């Protein structure tokens, strides 16, 4: 069993992410600014994380509605600070401002549309821009895998171009650093294990891998590589060697659909624990889906809280 | 429905003339097992190109009624088979099924790997082939989820547009009895709870038999992911050729190769 074994400071399971988040929060508990907190599922997730000692919360939204939902959930009325707002745009701006000013260290999407929140995050002034592309990382604890497997980007960039793929790789490397992986091993997914003009995505994967190495973004990256080869390793009769096959930390997909669907396949049919975070801004952005099991919501907030010292 | 239930429905393999292509050692074991069940076996040796050529010739001459290609890279095998199949039969369609301990029915997915797969005109003929195959196998109404990363039709995500249009055609009764809906997130397709939690009304109700995926990249990655740490059975077949072809995954265990062959045999009649 890999679980609970911390090897060279590398976190290899969702349980280890939770443990580490608890330990760090014992010294200084990060605050989550919840944009659109008038939602029972979101409040329950935040309250669970608070009860686990991982985060405090700043609830932003319609204060009357928030208090009503808190009553329904039988939460203490004054447990969390509330900032009253009257529109989605105002909610997004207030939550982002709290993060920009340092009052909160994690931004969480509640009952608010993602585009409205991202617009506030990316606002030229007062936003949370770092000047780099935002991308979503799905960190998965997959039964049978010895290490956490990050799949990206299944949430922000629909069809990333060459430069955006490099930004996705950069952001994923940042997430790996948070997990204690100094030199992450990455595979750019493809339908083949070699570049072929018949499949243009495989040609781009090869070029992106080369660019990522030559620009010094990441040392160990290969592509194209099929999901199976990446995770299981090269075939016994393979004519080459690989620093990545069989031991990837990150799988970079060709587009949002491939990543989103493959990640959900692992979660729903292979029992993976999912931790999602949007990286690339000054603070991590946590998005949990209403249909996510409670353990995934908790783990996502724990992962986001590990960024509390600042984005790498 | 389970694979075991599927296999109870039809007669056995007696009299079926199997053509085998592949050099791996388990082929001998498969051939022996087939003979013991009363079937005839012919083996095609050499390169994939040579084997595909000889196999299709044998099928055309009526000497082989069923094929098994094992141990070849998936896309290479399809490409070679397409080259040796009559042009009007293109594109070939792959159908892959999984029996998992986390889902209460066989979960199928299919695609035509060498089609553009970006419009109704590309997807619809393939969808009809897949539905017909599953109706033949399962003898029941097929639930088809057109899967994407969102539940709304968005021009920014092109697959949602053709998926939404196909779902609308189904609602108007243009696609037979199959229950078809999309675009749907993966969880909506296979989890009744997810559909309920998100408040999305869908005729699939989280009980899809067949997943239609947005592109080949997604198909390949999802199929590999479902094989990962797999507890359960899987079967792969190729449709659209003059005879059914069993094409198990490169990660398939010998039992899965045999299962693929049996599923292909069910489609023979």
Produce a short descriptive summary.
The complex is a heterodimer of chains A (312) and B (269). Chain A is α/β, with parallel strands linked by helices. Chain A is 39% helix and 17% strand.
Described by its quaternary structure, the protein is heterodimer
What order do the SSEs of chain B take from the amino end to the carboxyl end, as H and E?
HEHEHEHEEHEHEHHEHEEH
The CATH architecture of chain B comes to 3-Layer(aba) Sandwich
Strand line-up across the major sheet of chain A: 8-7-9-6-5-10
- The number of distinct helices of chain B, counting runs of at least 4 residues, comes to 10
Q: In the CATH scheme, what's the topology name of the largest domain in chain A?
A: Rossmann fold
CATH superfamily of chain B: Isopropylmalate Dehydrogenase
Measured on Cα atoms, how large is the radius of gyration of chain B? 18 Å
Number of helices of chain A: 10
Detail the poorly predicted runs of chain B.
none
Rounded to an integer, what's the Rg of chain A over CA atoms? 20 Å
Q: Separation of termini of chain B? A: 20 Å
CATH topology assignment of chain B? Isopropylmalate Dehydrogenase
Architecture overview:
The complex is a heterodimer of chains A (312) and B (269). Chain A is of the alpha/beta class and 312 residues long. Chain A has two domains: 12-130 and 281-312, Rossmann fold (3-Layer(aba) Sandwich), CATH 3.40.50.10950; 133-280, Isopropylmalate Dehydrogenase, CATH 3.40.718. Chain A has ten helices and eleven strands. A six-stranded mixed β-sheet of chain A has the order 8-7-9-6-5-10, with helices on both faces. Chain A is globular, with a radius of gyration of 20 Å. The two termini of chain A are 30 Å apart. In chain B, 42% of the residues lie in helices and 19% in strands. Chain B contains ten helices and ten strands. Chain B has helices at 3-8, 26-36, 48-60, 74-84, 120-138, 158-171, 186-190, 192-198, 216-227, 254-268; strands at 17-21, 40-44, 66-69, 93-100, 107-111, 143-147, 179-184, 210-212, 232-239, 245-246. The two termini of chain B are 20 Å apart. The mean pLDDT of chain B is 92. Chains A and B meet through α8 and α9 of A and α7, α8 and α9 of B.
């Amino acid at each position: 069993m890999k679980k609970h074994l911390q090897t060279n400071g590398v976190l290899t399971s969702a349980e280890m992410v939770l443990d580490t988040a608890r330990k760090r929060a014992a010294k200084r508990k990060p605050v989550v600014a919840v944009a659109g907190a008038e939602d029972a599922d979101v409040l329950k997730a935040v309250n669970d994380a608070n009860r686990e000692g991982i985060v405090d919360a700043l609830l932003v939204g319609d204060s009357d509605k928030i208090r009503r939902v808190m009553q329904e959930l039988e939460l203490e009325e004054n447990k969390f600070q509330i900032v009253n707002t009257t529109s989605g745009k105002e909610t997004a701006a207030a939550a982002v401002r709290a993060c920009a000013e340092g009052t909160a260290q994690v931004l969480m999407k509640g009952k608010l549309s993602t585009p409205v929140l991202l617009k506030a995050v990316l606002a030229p002034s007062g936003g949370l821009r770092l000047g780099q592309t935002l991308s979503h990382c799905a960190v998965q604890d997959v039964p049978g895998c010895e290490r956490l497997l990050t799949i990206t980007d299944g949430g922000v960039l629909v069809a990333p171009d060459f430069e955006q793929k490099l930004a996705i790789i950069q952001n994923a490397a940042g997430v790996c650093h948070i997990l204690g992986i100094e030199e992450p091993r990455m595979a750019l997914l493809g339908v083949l294990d070699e570049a072929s003009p018949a499949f243009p995505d495989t040609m781009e994967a090869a070029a992106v891998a080369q660019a990522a190495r030559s620009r010094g973004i990441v040392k160990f990256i290969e592509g194209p590589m099929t999901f199976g080869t990446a995770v299981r390793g090269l075939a016994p009769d393979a004519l080459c060697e690989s620093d990545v096959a069989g031991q990837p930390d990150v799988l970079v997909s060709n587009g949002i659909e491939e990543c989103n669907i493959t990640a959900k396949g692992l979660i729903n049919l292979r029992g993976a624990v999912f931790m999602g975070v949007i990286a690339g801004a000054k603070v991590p952005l946590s998005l949990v889906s209403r249909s996510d099991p409670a353990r995934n919501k908790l783990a996502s907030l724990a992962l986001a809280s590990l960024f509390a010292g600042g984005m790498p | 429905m389970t694979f075991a239930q599927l296999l109870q429905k039809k007669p056995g393999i007696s009299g079926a003339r199997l053509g085998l292509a592949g050099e791996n050692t388990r082929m001998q074991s498969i051939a022996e097992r087939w003979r013991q069940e009363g079937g005839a076996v012919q083996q095609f040796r050499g390169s994939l190109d040579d084997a595909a050529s000889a196999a299709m010739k044998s099928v055309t001459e009526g000497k082989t009624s069923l094929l098994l290609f094992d141990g070849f890279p998936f896309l290479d095998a399809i490409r070679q088979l397409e080259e040796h199949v009559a042009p009007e039969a293109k594109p070939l369609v792959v159908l892959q099924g999984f029996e998992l301990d986390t889902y209460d029915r066989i979960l199928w997915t299919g695609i035509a790997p060498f089609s553009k797969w970006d419009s109704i005109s590309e997807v619809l003929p393939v969808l009809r082939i897949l539905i017909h195959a599953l109706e033949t196998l399962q003898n029941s109404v097929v639930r088809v989820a057109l899967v994407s990363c969102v539940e709304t039709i968005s021009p920014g995500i092109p697959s949602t547009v053709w998926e939404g249009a196909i779902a609308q055609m189904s609602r108007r009764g243009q696609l037979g009895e199959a229950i078809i809906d999309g675009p749907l997130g993966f969880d909506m397709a296979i989890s009744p709870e997810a559909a309920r939690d998100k408040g999305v009304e869908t005729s699939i109700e989280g009980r899809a038999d067949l997943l239609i995926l947005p592109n080949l990249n997604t198909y390949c990655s999802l199929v590999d992911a479902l094989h990962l740490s797999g507890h359960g059975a899987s079967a792969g077949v190729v449709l659209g050729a003059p005879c059914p072809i069993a094409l198990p995954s490169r990660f398939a265990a010998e039992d899965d190769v045999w299962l693929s062959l049996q599923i292909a045999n069910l489609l023979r009649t």
